[in-house]
Every structure is written in C-alpha cells, then in structure tokens.
Design goal:
The structure is a homodimer of 339-residue chains.
Chain A: H1 7-14, H2 18-26, H3 33-46, H4 52-59, E1 64-69, H5 78-90, E2 94-99, H6 104-116, E3 121-125, H7 131-139, E4 144-147, E5 158-159, H8 163-176, E6 182-186, H9 193-208, E7 217-220, H10 225-237, E8 244-247, H11 250-262, E9 272-274, E10 291-293, H12 296-311, E11 325-327
Parallel strand pairs in A: 1-2, 1-3, 3-4, 4-5, 6-7, 6-8, 8-9
Antiparallel strand pairs in A: 10-11
The first copy, chain A, binds a DNA duplex (30 and 30 nucleotides) through helix 2 and helix 4.
Chain lengths: 339, 339
DNA sequence: ATTGGGTATGCAAGCGCTTACATTGTCCAT
DNA sequence: ATGGACAATGTAAGCGCTTGCATACCCAAT
C-alpha cells in the first residue's frame, strides 16, 4: 500500500460500512462485540490512523488544547505546563505548545495558527495583549484562559496568582530585614503584565513602609543569565549602592549571583539577592536563593480543569488566586540596625 | 454572526466564486488586482480565517512540523528546539511540540496524534524506539528526523552529535588529570540511547587508558536535581570512593554539587564533578562546572533545514555529526601524581 | 406463526476547502 | 470583421470522516 489507509479501506477489510468503523472508534458500545473485534483487527492490520483534518471537519471538535508560552529557553513555565499537559491528557485532550519568544506579533500569529488548527481552547500567559486579539478570540468563540496571572477584571478567565501581592510579600520581608536601598532587576514591562505587577508590588511595600517608591533602583533585562549579569553590574555601579537586589525571576537572580562573584562581592554580606519562582536551581545556587514559591503544578492542573470545563460548556465561577509563599534562604540577610 | 465565516460567505460578500477567494488567498497573482482588493476587503470585513481541517483535507499539506521531546521540565532541549522553531518559522512552517516525559508509550501516542493532525514532518529525539514505530512512520510516509543523536545506521536521518565520542572526550580529559576511580550518574538507559552512549563513551576512555571498564561506579537517576542528589550520595557511600563523578547532564551535576555541599565535601578538592550540555547554569554553579558544550542552536537549525528539505522532497546526503567541545571549569581538578 | 420493540448496521448528506477543467471575456493579428 | 490565444473567473468533484435517519434483524410476547 502506497498511501495511508482510510476509513473506507478498513470498512472494506472488515466487511462493514464506514459508519460502523467510525462508531467502533468513537462510541464502541454502540457496536456489538463480534463486529467490533473484526473491525479492530482490520484497523490494526492496516495500521489505520484516522485523518485528523477530516475528523475535525465532520465533528467540529479536536480534543486539542493549544498553549502559547513566552519562552521555552528556561524552565519558568515548564513545571506548570507539564502539569497542565498531564491533566489534559487524563481528560482525553492533547496539548500543542508554541513559544512566542516574548514577541506579541509572533504570539498573535501563533494564536491564529492554533485556532485555525481547530484548538478547542487556548491557554495564554498573562493578560497584556492587543484588544483585537481578544476580539478575534471571542469572534471565533475559542474559550481562552489566562495563566500566571489573576484578575477578576481580566479579559478572560484566569488561573494563577497575584504577582503584585506575591512580590509585595517578599519586599515586605526584605524591608523587615532592615533594607532601605532596594534595587530591582525586572523583565521588560512593556508587554509583560506579570513583570509590571511585580515591580508594582515592590513599590507598594516601599510606600507602605514610608519610603519613596520612586527611589527603587530599577533595571530591565530579559530573562537570561547574561543579561541579568549585566543589569546587576549596572545596579552595583550606582551610588549609593543598593543593599539588596530583587530579581523578577530566579534565572535573573542566578545571573546576579554570578556577577556578584565576578565582582568579588559577597552574597549576602555585601549585597542580598532574591529571586522569584522557586525553580529547581534556587536551593542549589550558592548561596541558596531567597525567592517566592509559585504553585506551578497546582496552577497547571487548575488551568487544565478550568479550560476543559469552559470548552465543554460548563459555567465556571471565578477562582480565587493561588497562594504563593516567600522562601527564606541564605541569599537574603538582615541588615544591622542603623538607628 | 454566530458562527465563523466560511469561504462561501466571503465569496458571496465579494460577489465572486469560492474558487476565486481561494486563489486570492493561496496564489494572489492568479487574480486580477481589482477583484483581489474586493475579496480582501470581504475577508477582513468578515474577519475570515480559513478552516484548517478543510484546507488540510483538500490540499494535503499542513505546513506544520511536529516535535516530541522527552521533557520540558528542564532546559535540556529548550535551546535546540527554540532554534529549530525559529528556522522553521522563517521557512513558513509552524512547530507543534509535545512532551513524552521519557515514556515510550506516551511518545507513541503523541506521534500518532501529531501524524493524525497532519504534521508534514516529525522531529524525534534519539533513536531508541520500537521498530513498529518506524514502520508506522514509513507507512504513513511522514518524513522523520532524529536529533540529539548521530548515526548513519539509524532508522531515520539524524541531525546531531556523537554522544559516545563526546563523553569519551570528556572522560579522556578526566583520566588525563590523573583520576582513576570514576563514578558516573547516568539517566536510565533502557530507552535512552543518548544516555547509553555516554556511558559507553566513558568506558571507551577507561579501556583505552588500560583500566577495567567495568570498574566504573555507575548509578542511574532521572534528570532532576533531587534524584541526582540521592544518586551522588549513594556514590559517595561506596568505598573506595570515586575521586570524580561524571554526570550525564548538567542538571544532574547541579544536584551532585548540591549534595556534596550538604555532605560537606568540597568540590573539587574532595571530589571532582562534571556535567554534560553546557547549559546556562553551568558557569553559574559553584564551583563552575566542567562540562561538554553541545551546539544546540546549530543542531536545531540544521534539523529544521534538513527536515524541511525532506518534507519538500529533496534528497539529502547524510550530514557529518556536529562537533562538541569539552569546557574546563573549576569543578574538575587534577589529582596529585601518586606514582 | 405473527407482531412489536429494540438493536445493530448501512446509507448518504454534508463539513469547508482546493483544484482540474470548463467557460467567458479581452485583445491583437489578420 | 473574424478567429485565436491567453487571462480571469466559475463549476463542481472530491478530500476522509461523522451522524441523522432508514433499514434489517433478532427475540419475546401473543
């Protein structure tokens, strides 16, 4: 056979109609045991795989969920997506992942590609995107869930945590340790609401502590080790120098620690450093990293459950945000009392 | 409008036939300017997106490439896949990624899902899988490329490097530093030819140096930090204790270093540790990690070019394996000469 | 034996798109 | 004027599958 077998080939081989074969595959209990056995044998003899395009076109459901994550370059989204996939799989859905490299235009293309491909639902990260994208999604009636963020006022249902409150919690701990000159390395905030919220969280804490929120020494850098190193170097060049640098993410914190070592600055003696995410590497860095633990797996699972419910037409009442937790490790130290 | 517009809706709105609309979209120069403008206006007025299933079914090409990677949990495959995607994108293809969690059965399901979805080509990692899988792929006539591995005798074309030679190169350096009692932490080798090859590479070097290859203290652990920590602890419990532990991967090396610190073993004074991959974290660990640099991006790009060529029916002569490079950093030290 | 009520199966109409082929229209050479 | 060549567009036949409806069949009850 030079071309892939079709339903009809199977039907012929089993001596039944295409309808029966289709039913065997999709609603096995509507076909009597004996026939089904014969059909299944033909299926495996011919090594038949249904043609997806045809199936979609006829049935209008794909049992496929699409997800677009900003990056696969580091593990930020990996754990959550893995859990998301596992849960989807258990529910009979297949996950297709694309990565946008933090580029809104690319993301938009990928959204269209996934929708065109018949994704029954979409998972996107964060809520910063052009209104036209949400219009398009609404128009195409594709249930969409936003993860890694939380908000009742978001343009779609969300499954995530409150980035602002989470970072504020960490900043409060930092301030509680006596730090007053705060530095921060954040991802570019233009199209990244999570990053923006984290910055806002730090400022919230500063304001609440009676500090000038604008005094935050803020530097932007992409989520990679080298950029963060450079950013850290810049921060350390300022005077007075910050006593602590809060990083928007553990990867950046790793870069900061790395750079500190290069500059012969002891962490935390000369400068404290914190991260965000509590990735695998956080406890392994030296010094081990103070960070914010994000419930990645729980978020992925919840996202899967919610999105499937949306796809299957159930009403979902909005979820509360997931809780995050400050993890204290050696990279943050208390400042000696000055007053 | 309650349902997505179809080609026919557009045709009606523009006052032309569906064929003309289709041509506007797929071969614009076969339609005269004036008509095309009218059609395009209708398209954007209606916010029309072609139905992928229908298009696939009629045209039999999807411009989609599928990739299945063993894990997204850590960044092992991330850089390569990212480059793969970028190159595909430049060539007008969309990449769909699935993760098999190192489970052959899951991988098989995902292969079928991707094929059924009309992937024009497939990228798989390594070559260890049931013959029936390759039969299926041949049957379905889906061009398939194996990455992260190299071999003229592989069941499909490959785009990668020689794991065995790469690890042998590192082991030779290690032996050259005077180490004689070697420990190794490898991923489970049952369905992972890359891991198996790396072990073989170490044994090759040992044998070539006149050592007993069976004297290698080998422990298996999945690619995560905690498992590697445990594995390292086991290795250190043996006596005589290895003077160096070669890890199948940088993540495992991170776990090993972490565990060494916990056990108050100084690296590299008490024990040397090496990794594989030269991930971002390798230079950031303390001590910085001696490892093998793998040309991830080059591999991803080559894979994309080769696979697209295969999909488009060009003949490809087999490529040479990509070169790897031993990166010496502080985690490996020379042993004092004993003789 | 008949009849009625289920069940198991077959029939055939699409699903939205592409594309080979047919048709219509245009323009130029004769 | 007329025919021919070519360009622009339309017509309609699938692509492989699902599913509402029709048919065939089986068994129990009469």
């Amino acid at each position: 056979m030079t071309t892939a077998p079709t339903l009809e080939d199977v039907a012929r081989a089993a001596g039944v109609s295409t309808a029966t074969v289709s039913r065997c595959l999709n609603m096995p209990d509507r076909v009597v045991e004996k026939t089904r056995a014969r059909v299944m044998k033909a299926v495996s003899d011919l090594n038949y795989t249904p043609n997806f395009g045809a199936r979609v076109m006829a049935a209008k459901r794909t049992q496929t969920i699409g997800a677009i994550i900003p990056t696969m370059e580091n593990a930020i989204f990996a754990r959550g997506i893995q859990a998301f996939q596992e849960t989807l799989h258990a529910k009979g859905y297949t996950l297709l992942v694309a990565s946008s490299a933090y580029d809104p235009a690319l993301e938009e293309q990928e959204i269209k590609a996934l929708v065109a491909r018949g994704a029954d639902g979409l998972l996107l990260i964060g809520q910063d995107r052009d209104g036209s994208v949400y219009d398009y999604l609404a128009r195409q009636q594709v249930p969409t869930l936003l993860a890694w963020t939380h908000g009742a006022d978001a343009p779609c249902p969300t499954a995530g945590f409150d980035n602002r409150a989470a970072m504020r919690g960490l900043a409060e701990v930092v301030l509680g340790k006596g730090h007053r000159r705060l530095g921060m390395i954040s991802a570019p905030t233009a199209t990244n609401d999570r990053a923006r919220q984290r910055v806002a969280g730090v400022r919230d804490a500063m304001a609440a502590a009676g500090l000038d929120a604008n005094a935050l020494a803020l530097v932007h850098a992409p989520y990679d080790i080298d950029s963060a190193s450079t950013a850290f170097e810049g921060l350390m060049g300022q005077s007075p120098r910050p006593t602590v640098v809060l990083c928007g993410n553990d990867v950046q914190a790793a870069g900061a620690i790395h750079q500190a070592r290069k500059m012969s600055l002891a962490v935390p003696e000369d400068v404290s450093i914190t991260g965000f995410d509590d990735m695998d590497i956080a406890p392994v860095l030296s010094p081990p990293l103070t960070t914010v633990a994000v419930p990645h797996r729980a978020m992925g699972q919840r996202a899967a459950r919610t999105l499937v419910a949306m796809v299957e037409g159930e009403d979902m009442q909005p979820d509360a945000p997931l809780a995050t937790q400050v993890i204290l490790r050696a990279s943050l130290k208390a400042l000696p009392q000055a007053d």
